[in-house]
Amino acid sequence: MSKKITFLPDKTTTTVNDGENLLTAAAAAGVYIHAFCGGEGVCGKCKVKIKEGQVSSERAHLKEGEFEHGVRLACQTSVVSDLVVEIPEAMGKDGRALKRKPKTTRAISARSLEALIGKWDVDPPVEKRFIRLDPPTMDDNAPDLQRLLRGIRKGCYECKEPTYDHPEMLRELPFVLREANWEITAIMLRGKRAEEPDRIIAVEPGNTTDRLYGLAVDIGTTTVSGILMDLNSGKVLAEASAYNGQIRYGEDVISRIIYSQRPGGLRTLQERVVHTINEIIESVCRNVMISPSDISYIMAAGNTVMSHLLLGIDPKFVREAPYVPACSQFPLTRAASLGVMAHPSVRLFLYPSIASYVGGDIVSGVHACQMHKSPELTLFIDIGTNGEIVVGNMDWMMCTACSAGPAFEGGGIRFGMRASSGAIENFQIHPATYDPMIVTIDRTKPRGICGSGLISIVAELLESGVIDQQGKFNRSIDHPRIRTGHDGYEYVLAWSKDSLIGEDVVITEVDIDNLIRAKGAMYAGYQTLLESVGMTFTDLDRIILAGNFGAYLDLERAISIGLLPDLDRDKFFYLGNGSLLGAQISLDDHKRFRERSEVSRLITNMELSENPQFMHHYVAALFLPHTDLNLFPSVRSKLAEI
Fold first, then answer.
1. What does each C-alpha distance from 163 to 132, 145, 198, 202, 343 come to in angstroms?
2. Helix (H, G, I), strand (E, B) or coil at 253
3. How far apart, in whole angstroms, are the C-alpha atoms of residue 114 and residue 116?
């Protein structure tokens, strides 16, 4: 149940879920509270006063009498009811309150997801049919296979004659039938197209129709994620994720292509990603106490290189002009042949790719949000080390990819890290005192900066005048947190005594420059793709942000630094992990699954490296937010107030 919080004295109002942490709620609402321990509760700076409502909190780090007068540490307080919370104002040296304007942010909207993906049926591509067969006699001694086919057809007069496609099923069939006393369950795979017959892929003794499970998998370059589903009900039973075991051989796809050319490299990379998928399978099966052999179908999506490596296909020519993958339509594969832990009959389907750097993960995301059915002109963005972009609607689509670099995942940043415990994910700065408000993942002492935190930090430093549009620190500010370090000027986010790693956590000009290059590549990619089809940002009806990183992106701050275009905020939608969502939908509904060919048919690729305008747009985007402030009117207004 949602709760309403009003923060005084700014009268900023926000809505949060019951039990939400008060410091996290304030940060999301753009309300500044002095806090620099990340939310662990040890600095004692985030004191607030509960004027109205009920909270759950402890007395730790409060002075005598404060608790009784409604004072609480925001980071140690959970929301129980509607609240009115008073935030103490920072005081200047003259004893006067130092006021600041409240920030504006946009929370991720659940309605966005529902509006994009629509409804789907529970009608999976694989099903189980329980069949009682008449035992053979001297008068009816038809072969076992024909007897099974006859039993499947019985009572289903419109069904096409089913087929089978593997001798292993035939080898087991005579023994399973007799051991089960002619009562068996047939596992049937629907035809790839409506006109194709179903296929028998396995038989099991007895009635196992109540155990029908499927696995949706997103094979990411950094992270592999999986969802276990009950295909009888369509319910999600368990979720799990793990770092892709290939990381030790390279953090990006180019490094892994290079490694695959070493003796035994391709086999090693395949084994590592299969091992990661098996870890996911073990985890989700353990959660619901089933066996991996109970999984009847696996629907997966990954970028072009990840798909090649999973199947053991050499990706050598993906990185060499003219950038040609071995294939774009991947064969339906027996999971066991790859070493994946599942029933020997289980098929693994990989979403098709479009080009060397626009893969099945993007096709799956576009499929999930139904761009191929919508008349609205849409810009689909998946932000990451390799940013993928699609523009179009139900009539046509164009796509491209640009190498943004690893900054959005913490790479190339001195204290950069992936989004895990201790990573700074939200940041604000007081424009008068220049003191920080830091919120970390799991609210522990800070130990680094993740991608969403990096964007928050740079946007806040820009809007408070600590850095200029070139990303350079304002040398005229006299403050202990702004200093010269090993890599030039830097801002101290957390002093060593307040950090988890025992040293100062800082952001440097080099870090900021790396972020500017990454966001510049993405923005130039949007512009170039739109320009190639004779359009501009103003022609767009909506923008869809996909990927795990996109789900945690603060819209206002992303616009402030020039990562996203400055458009009507209601045009933006959050899809989340579209790759996994598309696989989940296809696993649930075979009719939606069959639409995938329509999606891939509509999308045409454009190589940015062959477009001379890309570099022009890229150079222009190497400012915060851009060299042309007319493209960012809302940011121009904010900067004019500094």
1. 19, 10, 6, 11, 19
2. helix
3. 5
Distance (Å, rounded) from C-alpha 435 to C-alpha 452?
Answer: 20
* Residue 166: C-alpha distances to residues 10, 146, 197, 200, 344 (Å): 69, 15, 15, 9, 11
Alpha helices in 118-212 (DSSP H): 144-153, 167-179
Q: Name the token pair of 545.
A: 């942000």
Give SS3 for 545.
strand
What's the pLDDT score for residue 284?
97
Q: Each residue of 498-540: pLDDT tens digit?
A: 999 999 999 999 999 999 999 999 999 999 999 999 999 999 9
**Residue of 225, 391, 375, 231 whose CA lies nearest to 300:** 225
CA quadruple 637, 640, 641, 642: dihedral sign: positive
Place of tokens 């937010």: 625
DSSP conformation class of 252? S
φ and ψ at residue 181, rounded to 5 degrees: 55, 40
- Whole-angstrom distance, CA of residue 519 vs CA of residue 563: 5
Residue type, 189: L
Q: What is the pLDDT of residue 95?
A: 45
Token couple for 372: 């191929």
Q: Which of 444, 455, 447 is nearest to 494 (CA)?
A: 447
Beta strands at 505-508 and 436-440: parallel, antiparallel or unpaired: unpaired
The predicted model scores a pTM of: 0.87
State how far the Cα of 412 lies from the Cα of 508, in Å rounded to an integer.
11
Q: Is 427 exposed, middle or buried (0-12, 13-18, 19+ CB in 10 A)?
A: buried
Structural contact between residues 186 and 207, judged by C-beta atoms closer than 8 angstroms: no
Question: Which single residue is written with the structure tokens 């509760």?
Answer: 41
CA dihedral over 570, 571, 575, 576, signed as positive or negative: negative
Kind of pairing between the strands at 97-98 and 163-164: unpaired
Please report the pLDDT score of residue 111 as a whole number: 44
CA-to-CA dists, residue 555 to 457, 559, 575, 579, angstroms: 14, 6, 13, 21
Q: List, in sequence order, every residue forming a beta bridge with 492; answer none if it has no partner.
A: 506
Q: How far is CA 141 from CA 24, 130, 147, 226, in A?
A: 72, 22, 9, 46
CB 225 within 8 A of CB 280: yes
Task: Summarize the confidence of residues 370-383 as an average pLDDT.
Answer: 94
From 41, 74, 40, select the one nearest 443 (Cα to Cα). 40
Phi, psi of 119 (to 5 degrees): -105, 160
Q: How far apart are CA 594 and CA 454, in angstroms?
A: 40
Q: What is the 3-state secondary structure (H, E, C) of 73-97?
A: EHHHCEECCCEEEECCCEECCCCCE
